[in-house]
């Protein structure tokens, strides 16, 4: 079996990923450009257009996190991507525009972003000194508010350099046509309001017409 390659390729690439396959420091915990509780400067992405795609979706995941926390870490999920390019720091910028709008739903001109793994409201009992925070991750990896988990969570490998996986999905529908169900109920929900990765996967799975994958590395923090 051919081993996957690290770094930019002919199908998908980022200016923030160097020739050595490593993401620039400001894409993670080594340099917090936005001065947010966790690094939130998302990488730019460009890719070859996927035939028959009307829109795109993206997920960034750290499978190496399983050695640290027992499962992979979702760093970013987003839909409503209308071209084959995402600008650098677009996650943070669009997140702020949404907060400033004070609307519960995302507008058509923004990325529709879901919760990353730092989400602080979960069914798991509180296990932290700060009793206002839920979830099972350490406090350093838990958002201080529910809204703050709705953008890119910068790379933060605490034990060793990690490899991160970016998948861009080409979809045969616009984001407004993506729907999912909760708890097997008949009511449909849309991704124009905050959602989780399970909702994301459920909504896109019948609409994927192709995908591009990029693997990059980030240096250990601490």
Automatic annotation (TrEMBL):
InterPro entries according to UniProt: PEBP, PEBP-like_sf, YbhB_YbcL/LppC-like
Source domain of life: Bacteria
Protein name: Putative phospholipid-binding protein
Source organism of the structure: Mycoplasmoides gallisepticum WI01_2001.043-13-2P
């Amino acid at each position: 079996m051919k081993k996957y390659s690290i770094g930019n390729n002919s199908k998908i690439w980022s200016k923030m990923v160097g020739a050595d396959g490593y993401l620039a420091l400001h894409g993670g915990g080594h340099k917090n450009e936005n001065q947010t509780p966790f690094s939130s400067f998302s990488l730019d992405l460009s890719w070859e257009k996927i035939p028959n795609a009307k829109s795109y979706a993206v997920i960034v995941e750290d499978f190496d996190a399983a050695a640290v926390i027992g499962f992979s870490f979702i760093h970013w999920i987003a839909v409503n991507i209308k071209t084959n390019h995402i600008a650098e720091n677009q996650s943070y910028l669009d997140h702020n525009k949404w907060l400033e709008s004070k609307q519960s739903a995302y507008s058509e001109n923004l990325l529709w972003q879901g919760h990353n793994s730092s989400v602080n409201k979960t069914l798991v009992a509180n296990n932290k000194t700060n009793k206002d925070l839920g979830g099972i991750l350490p406090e350093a990896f838990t958002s201080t508010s529910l809204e703050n988990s709705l953008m890119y969570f910068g790379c933060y490998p605490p034990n060793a350099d990690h490899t991160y996986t970016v998948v861009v999905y080409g979809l045969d529908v616009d984001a407004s046509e993506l729907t999912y169900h909760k708890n097997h109920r008949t009511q449909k929900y849309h991704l124009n309001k905050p959602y989780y990765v399970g909702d994301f996967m459920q909504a896109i799975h019948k609409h994927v017409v192709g995908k591009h994958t990029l693997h990059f590395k980030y240096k250990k923090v601490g």
